[in-house]
Design a protein that fits this description.
Blueprint: E1 5-10, H1 17-28, H2 38-47, E2 56-61, H3 68-88, E3 92-97
Parallel strand pairs: 1-2, 2-3
Length: 111
């Protein structure tokens, strides 16, 4: 089985659906004429209209920090990915991933 392609998008500063659609469709390599609706996303995923093809995982890092209405909408987008994967018989997944903690450089003991 072919290994999944993972696309990682940093979503924590997204403030609107328009921002989400612009970056998501660009990352997928959608055609310029692609609509910004759930139906258009489903149709294009199933028809293979994007530059990237399944198996596919899209990680939205920090999406939980988006406005609540956008987070709720992202759960609907995630369902579209799952439905497209089921129709294709191939993994097509949208993950909402937390922002990883920042690592700190080791500190020197005081003398």
């Amino acid at each position: 089985m072919k290994q999944s392609l993972t696309l990682r998008l940093y979503a924590r500063k997204w403030d609107s659906r328009e921002a989400m659609w612009r970056l998501l469709l660009d990352a997928l390599g959608a055609p310029e004429w692609h609509g910004d609706s759930l139906d258009a996303l489903y149709d294009s995923l199933v028809a293979g209209l994007h530059r990237v093809r399944p198996p596919l995982v899209v990680e939205l890092v920090g999406a939980a920090r988006c406005p609540a209405a956008l987070v709720a909408y992202l759960t609907r987008v995630r369902a579209v990915f799952a439905d497209a994967g089921a129709a294709l018989g191939a993994p097509v997944e949208l993950r909402l991933t937390p922002v990883p903690p920042r690592s700190r450089p080791p500190t020197r003991p005081r003398r």
